[in-house]
Amino acid sequence: MIIKKAEYIISGTKASHIPDLKVPEFVFMGRSNVGKSSLLNAITNRKNLAYTSSKPGKTITLNFYNVNDAILLVDVPGYGYAMRLVQDRLNYGKMIEDYLEKSKYLKTCFLVVDSRHEPTEDDVLMYNFLKHSNQNVVVIATKIDKISKNELNKNISIIRKKLQMQSTELLIPVSSEKKIGIDKVHSYIETFLN
Ligand code: GTP
Ligand code: MG
């Protein structure tokens, strides 16, 4: 996929804030600090389109990005970090549920996990929630530049097992830093374009 245009459109916390571009939409979900915003930058081939930080909790709203006037990418705040309080958990849940229900052009939820770690209970909950909401879910395991090939293979099995993924379900290992696997994400997204 050639990125001719990648621009920030708007931030929001409600479904009513979703831009009405009528193009296929893809959302990035996952725990704080796993690398969702970095992945969005790697996919759009921009360094600082989405703000990243070594501290968790950088992204706090739904952020919408227009790519090539052909797709909409949505960066979502990470769960875990901002959800220690019951109230935060409920608000976060509502925001995501509201968004999923109303986003008519959503094609796939990318569940982003850290390739170095076993998925947490929050990851399992989110994966199951997305599946039960009848979403297309693709798991992306990030930061693979930080581990060896052997470790990666071992960890991929652990991730698949913990999330109880079917063998037909897609898991894409990536490194946003070293630009590994980004072409696979591009190819996947392209299957939704005409
Ligand atoms: P929140 O917005 O807090 O939910 O975090 P996020 O998931 O958007 O994470 P972000 O992209 O801000 O990245 C978190 C940290 O991980 C940053 O310090 C990134 O530089 C680092 N990081 C992200 N992806 C990679 C990767 O592929 N390899 C390496 N080595 N570091 C990465
Ligand atoms: Mg972020």
Question: Which helices and strands, and how do they pair?
Answer:
Blueprint: E1 6-12, E2 25-30, H1 36-44, E3 62-67, E4 71-75, H2 86-102, E5 106-114, H3 121-132, E6 137-142, H4 149-162, E7 171-173, H5 182-190
The structure holds guanosine-5'-triphosphate and magnesium ion.
The site of guanosine-5'-triphosphate has 24 residues, from helix 1.
What would you note in describing this structure?
With 194 residues, the chain is an alpha/beta fold. The protein is 31% helix and 22% strand. It contains 5 helices and 7 strands, in the order ββαββαβαβαβα. The chain has a 7-stranded mixed sheet with strand order 1-3-4-2-5-6-7, sandwiched between helices. The structure holds guanosine-5'-triphosphate and magnesium ion (MG).
Helix fraction by DSSP (H/I, runs of at least 4): 25-40%
Distance between the termini: 13 Å
SSE series? EEHEEHEHEHEH
Can you give the mean pLDDT?
A: 92
Compact description:
It is built from five helices and seven strands.
What keyword list fits this structure?
194 residues, alpha/beta, 7-stranded mixed β-sheet, 22% strand, binds magnesium ion
